[in-house]
Design a protein that fits this description.
Number of helices: 10
Distance between the termini: 15 Å
Oligomer: single chain
Shape: globular
Strand content: under 5%
Number of strands: 0
Largest sheet: none
Order of helices and strands: HHHHHHHHHH
Radius of gyration: 23 Å
Length: 259
């Protein structure tokens, strides 16, 4: 874990930090501009102390480009994880061999690390969205009560509902399968010591592109979610079959070497 973290964790934190800054700045800008316009129009009627929002919070999420920032960050995190895997195989192959771990054990460690990195991205995005909505709430006039602001916004906005599906089990399953599939396919880019990652990473990039392109979907189980489930489950099974040598190449074929 230490070797993986030294190679990629700071880069991943940098990606997440840039995502958070970009979302916060755009959300603040859009919220300030719209509330300022409302104050000015209301001020002409002699009620400067009242702020009226013309935009629902779920719309502000779209205008602030939160989905774009998150999906771009997801793609960049995967770039870092894949680049780390390829670089470690080419530059640190001897060090990895000295660890005394089998190929399966190393694959499991890398998969767990990748899952942790992707989970961190989701957790930061969820709490950032909650924080931005709490900030939005401070702009609401004192006489207006919105007790279900967070629940309704996360339910009405496709993006927020996809990252935190609440009681929708189907999307929780889809997200878990997606994180597992992306983590395993990144960990399996280099299955054997000394391999080149160019050809192997082609299938990985395909999974990343489809995961990003198909992430947003309407609440409720739908055809797109079912396609995602099938794709991600297929990737998981493929990576497991590959790492257990079903397709012909095993550790024994490599001279029973530990990686």
């Amino acid at each position: 874990f230490g070797l993986l973290a030294r190679s990629s964790f700071l880069k991943i934190l940098g990606v997440i930090f840039i995502m958070a800054i970009g979302e916060t700045v755009l959300f603040w800008h859009d919220m300030s501009v719209r509330s300022g316009t409302a104050e000015q129009s209301v001020g002409e009627l002699g009620t400067n102390d009242v702020t009226i929002f013309v935009t629902a919070p779920e719309k502000l999420v779209e205008y602030a480009l939160l989905p774009l920032f998150f999906l771009a960050a997801l793609a960049l995190v995967m770039v870092v994880l894949i680049w780390t895997e390829v670089r470690m195989s080419e530059k640190a192959g001897y060090t990895m061999m000295r660890l005394g771990l089998s190929r399966k054990e190393l694959f499991a460690i890398k998969t767990i690390y990748n899952v942790a990195c992707l989970a961190l991205l989701f957790v930061v995005q969820i709490w950032l969205a909650i924080g931005l909505l709490a900030w939005y709430r401070t702009y609401i006039p004192a006489g207006i009560d919105m007790p279900q602001l967070f629940f309704l916004t996360f339910y009405r906005n496709e993006f927020l509902h996809c990252i935190l599906p609440m009681q929708e089990i189907g999307k929780w399953i889809r997200n878990l399968l997606m994180v597992a599939a992306l983590s395993m396919t990144a960990a399996g880019v280099i299955a054997f010591p000394g391999e080149k990652g160019i050809r192997q990473s082609a299938s990985c990039w395909s999974v990343v592109i489809l995961a990003v392109a198909w992430f947003l979907s309407a609440p409720g189980k739908n055809l797109l979610d079912m396609c995602c489930d099938i794709l991600f489950l297929g990737v998981i099974v493929w990576e497991l079959l590959k790492i257990f040598g079903v397709f012909g190449r095993t550790e024994a074929a490599d001279g029973d070497k530990n990686v």
